[in-house]
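# nightly structure sweep
# worker-07 picked up a monomer target from the shared queue
# config: single-sequence mode, recycle default, output format = C-alpha cells
# input follows
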Amino acid sequence: MKLELIEIETDTIPLDGLLYYPERKPAHGAVMIFHGNTMNFYTGAPRFLPPMICELGYACLSFNRRGHDILSIRDTRIAVGAALQTTAEGIADNQYAAQWLSDKGFNNPILIGHSNGGFLAVQHAAANPDTPALILLSAHGGGRVAEKLAARTGLLGASKTEELRERAKLMIAEGKGDELIILPGWWYVATANSYIDRLTTMPNTVETAPYITCPSLFIRGDLEIPEAYPAEDFAAASSGKCDVEIIKNCDHFYRNKEDEVKHIVRSWIIKTLA
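# output follows
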C-alpha cells in the first residue's frame, strides 16, 4: 500500500487528505470517504477503512472538508472548521474531491460517509447517478430531523435549540453572523450563520433516497437513536437496493467495533461489486 498526502484546491482554502494506493496495479477503481461533523481524515472510519479497501484493489481518498474539526487554522490566524461550515460548502467540497480523483483517472468512485459525511454522501450520489455504490455509516436524517430530536440526542443545543435559534437570527440581523455562539454540548461552538444554516438548509436524507439508484449499505449501531440515523426508512425509500446492518453494543463512533465494521463493508463490496 502506497500513501500520498494530497491537497485539493477549492474556491477558498484547499482540502488536505491522504490517497491510498493498492499494491496491485492498476486499481479496480476508487473509493471516497467523507468524514463526520467536527472530525477529519485521520480519525474514525476515514482512518480504519482505507487499508482494507486497498486490500480489495481499490484506491481510496480520505480527505478533510473545510468543515473539519471544530476550529482550526492553516497558514493565517483566520479560523476555519466545523464551527463555520455550511451545507452548500460541504456539498461543494465533495464535488471538488471527486473532480480531483477524476483528474487522476478515477471516475465515479464508490462513496462511504460517516454521520454528516453520510448525509453528504447521499446528496453526492443523488447528484451523480453514475455512482456505483454507496455505504452509509450512521448517516443522519438531515432536514429538520436533528432539531426535532435535539432534546433526546443532546445535539444542536439540546433543549435550548429554540432559544439559540432566536439568538442566532438576531445576531445575523445585527451583522454579527460570523460571530461564535457557545452551544451546550456537541459541537460546542458555531457561528450564528452556521447554526441557522444547519437548522434550515439541509435536505432530508430519506426524502432524497428515491433519487439513489445505485446499491447501498446502511450501517447503524444499536445504541444510536433510529429516528436520528434512519437506516430502515432510507432502505424502504431508496430506488436502488439497500441493505441494512445493525451492530450490537455499538455507538455512533463504532468504538471497539472497527473490525466488525470492516468485515461488513468488505463482505458487502465483494458481494455487490464482484
